[in-house]
Amino acid sequence: MSFAEFEYGPDIPGETGLRLLGPVAGKRILVLGCRRTDAILSLARNDAKVIVVDHASRRVDMAREACEQADVRVEFHRTDLADLAFLRGDSIDATLSVSALAEVEDLNRVFRQVHRVLGANGALALSLPTRRSPASTPRAASPPAWPAGTPTPRRSPPGPTVSRPSTPTPSVASSPASPGPSSGSTSSSSPSRWPEAPAARTGPRPWRGCRPPSSSGPGKRAHNPVDRCDACGFDYYGFPRTEIGERLLALAVDHGERLTETPAVFLREHPVEGWSALEYGCHVRDVLLVQEARIQQAQREDSPAFVPMGRDERAVNDRYNDQAPDTVARALTEAAGALTTVLAPLDDAGWARTGTYFYPEPATRDVDWIARHTVHELHHHLTDVHRVLKAVFED
Fold first, then answer.
1. How far is CA 32 from CA 29, 67, 100, 351, in A?
2. Distance between CA 146 and CA 156 in Å, rounded?
3. Which of 218, 230, 290, 345 is at a distance of 20 to 30 A from 48, taking alpha carbons?
4. pLDDT on residue 130
5. pTM given for the model
6. Of 209, 323, 222, 231, the residue nearest 275 (C-alpha)
7. Helix (DSSP H) and strand (DSSP E) numbers for the chain
8. Is the pLDDT at 136 greater than 50, yes or no?
């Protein structure tokens, strides 16, 4: 994928329209944060020398694994976003940050360091999530992210906007970086806390997790299983096969962050008909495990009939909503890594192996379709998680 096709966020024009960084070939580009693995991969594939900084070990490990799978060279540093002492002054051609600065308390320090390392006419392109008023219309395609340590979040999830402000806290901007004013810190003096949790139930807790989405109604799935999902807009063949692994890893990271950065009490809520955000996370984890087993079975056997996973039964029998979100997040990202490891060495013959797939109706599917369908499952259910959490925070 050309970096010109990169999108800075939902409802935001991509690089083609904004032209924030321009041609990247041969440039030394500093990426602050690993939240968008697709950006890192796109830059590296377009011959940029990419240097990535992120303080979160899990994100760095997942991004590094995605780069290894894609066979691109990227330099990673696990450190605070403002700890750029390893870079010489005027040594960077451009800096990119997508949503990562939402976690930073002292933006002035980050901007001073970026200003120091950027060369003459160096560009800084960044996007930040915004928290809108409850009356705002949320963007269904923008999954929420509420980093730890940020000021008290409102009950509607954030969504990015586009602007070109002169202050050092833009939503999306591109200009030579300069130090922010000394009073520009976004840290809050009052302790941050989440909205009041729902009142504790008395007596046995009724099970509400065995209601997966049906084929109609708001937020429900209705798609052509062959090549496109009308509900979420996913195009099965809208990307090359070589991107399947990196998309799986990037989506797994996004799911994991929803599970680890949102308090468990909200993950377990059922504000709308269907599963909770936690139950969707458990389902995605199991989808990855089941799909890995199916693909391996297709390599061993000729046209096997894949056993249905029993999604409804799993939700009840495994008590999805009682599981620990951190444990689910870790298992989910590990399952994505295991699946990409199975896919990586396949040759054309391996991708063409087939089996009988029973969802939504019995049909012969090849491994290529099964892998793409798995990417769709993660993409689609990320929008489901956003829909559920949006309803929780607006209730």
1. 10, 16, 7, 35
2. 11
3. 345
4. 56
5. 0.51
6. 209
7. 11, 12
8. no
DSSP, collapsed to helix, strand or coil, labels residue 29 as strand
DSSP string, 337-378: HHHHHHHTT--HHHHH-EEEE-SSS-EEEEHHHHHHHHHHHH
> What letter would DSSP give residue 101?
G
Helix or strand (DSSP H, E) at 62: helix 57-70
- Counting beta carbons within 10 angstroms of the beta carbon of residue 149, is it exposed (0 to 12), middle (13 to 18) or buried (19 or more)? exposed
Lowest mean pLDDT: which of 5-9, 15-19, 148-152, 330-334?
148-152
In 3D space, the residue among 230, 317, 320 whose CA is nearest the CA of residue 275 turns out to be 320
Spatial CA neighbour of 251 closest among 90, 62, 48: 62
Spatial CA neighbour of 109 closest among 35, 165, 186 = 186
Ordered domains of the chain (ranges, CATH): 3-175 (3.40.50.150), 223-394 (1.20.120.450)
pLDDT band (50, 70, 90) for residue 129: low
Look at residues 86, 81, 99, 113 and name the one whose alpha carbon lies nearest to residue 39: 99
Structure tokens at 92: 């960077």
Judge whether 198 and 269 are in contact, CB under 8 Å.
yes
Q: Which two tokens stand for residue 83?
A: 């700890």
Residue 150 pLDDT greater than 50, yes or no: no
Q: Which residues pair with 31 in a beta bridge?
A: 52, 96
Q: Please report where in the chains the tokens 């799911």 appear, as a residue.
A: 255
Kindly tell me if the per-residue pLDDT of 97 is higher than 80: yes
344-355 confidence digits (pLDDT tens): 999 999 999 999
User: In Å, what is the CA distance from 369 to each residue of 62, 221, 244, 343, 347?
Assistant: 24, 18, 11, 12, 15
Q: For 174-195, how does the pLDDT look when each residue is reduced to its tens digit (9 = 90+)? A: 444 444 433 333 333 333 334 4
Q: Beta strands 354-357 and 363-366: pairing type? A: antiparallel
